[in-house]
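Structure (tokenized):
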């Protein structure tokens, strides 16, 4: 039995923090897991910048409300879900993901959560588990699933390499060059064909 595990941002929807960076004009918030492999370090950096600028959850959610899935993402996901089970495994947060899941047809998502004060300040974050993507893939394998995994960033490599088949999608030139053995795709048709082929 196959289950496909997909990253969210950069694969199905645009990067939330990049969109927020553009909306606020704060260049430092453009940094993502494509640039910084240490997610804890990256999030501490983001929270510090939010505090410095007096920005909270509402401001981020207002920007997320304007984000649509990448062209073709929902159709790709619908087709993939017709041939196998799919779980989106993301290092984003429930407070960010909900409106995006509605636009994608409510797929299953495993993600993390933010700690938000009464006045809306994002004070901390809670990871669902350590190395959440790799840990989740290994857990699925332990209950009898063969996993196929795909993503675009450093924090996806663990689950990609632990899976029966793994792919890069819309990744950076550096990540592709550092992982030449991984098949990399730029469009959903080729990506879907590769996933289907891996299940044969």
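Design, position by position:
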């Amino acid at each position: 039995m196959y289950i496909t595990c997909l990253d969210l941002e950069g694969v199905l929807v645009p990067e939330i923090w990049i969109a927020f960076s553009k909306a606020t004009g704060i260049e430092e918030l453009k940094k993502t897991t494509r640039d910084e492999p240490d997610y804890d370090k990256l999030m501490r950096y983001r929270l510090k910048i939010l505090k410095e600028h007096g920005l909270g959850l509402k401001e981020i959610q207002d920007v997320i409300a304007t984000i649509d899935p990448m062209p073709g993402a929902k159709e790709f996901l619908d087709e993939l879900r017709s041939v196998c089970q799919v779980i989106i495994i993301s290092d984003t947060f429930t407070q960010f993901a909900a409106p995006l899941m509605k636009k994608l047809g409510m797929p299953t998502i495993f993600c993390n959560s933010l700690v938000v004060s009464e006045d809306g300040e994002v004070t901390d974050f809670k990871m669902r588990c350590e190395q959440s993507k790799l840990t989740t893939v290994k857990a699925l394998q332990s209950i009898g699933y063969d996993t196929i995994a795909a993503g675009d960033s450093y924090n996806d490599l663990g689950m990609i390499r632990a899976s029966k088949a793994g792919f890069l999608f819309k990744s950076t030139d550096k990540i592709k060059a550092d992982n030449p053995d991984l098949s990399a795709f730029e469009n959903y048709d080729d990506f879907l064909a590769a996933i289907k082929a891996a299940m044969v």
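Reviewer-requested clarification: The chain is about 45% helix and 20% strand. Residues 16-64 form a domain with the thrh gene product, domain 2 fold (CATH 3.90.1470.10).
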